[in-house]
Amino acid sequence: MKRIILGSVMVVALAALVAMPLVAQQPQGRGMGRGAGMGMGPGGPGGPMAVLRGLELTDAQREQIRAIMDAERENRPAERVADLHKQLQLAILADTPDTQKLGELKAAIAARMAEELTHRIEVESKIVQILTPEQRAQARENAGKMGPPQGRRGR
Q1: Range of the domain at 89
Q2: Model confidence pLDDT, tens digit, residues 117-127
């Protein structure tokens, strides 16, 4: 039984090692330009707020969005999911993987991802409230045209 569990952990570890570089890669984003949305911020580069690209934002709207994004950057917790993934990878690579430690890191990653999602939704909701009804309609249209996030396309 112990061999089956250890074998399963090693298979998961190998899969994680193969997947980690793909998940951790982050393409470079572009900041906000005239009439553009965000390249970086909630959801990552080209993430969910990329639907703002191409919208004709007023100077006041751009300033409000910048203020929200600046506050978001200041409130970002120090330990991010990427840091936890790195700890997980190191724990998997240990000479003798500690299954309890692996379980704790798995739970911490899941909890942190949920926190980040909640935070992203709050930030994006604030930003969307700045848009006019016409801009929201255009953003919905943009969202309908977008493909799946990078790294999550169908296999």
Answers
A1: 58-147
A2: 888 899 899 99
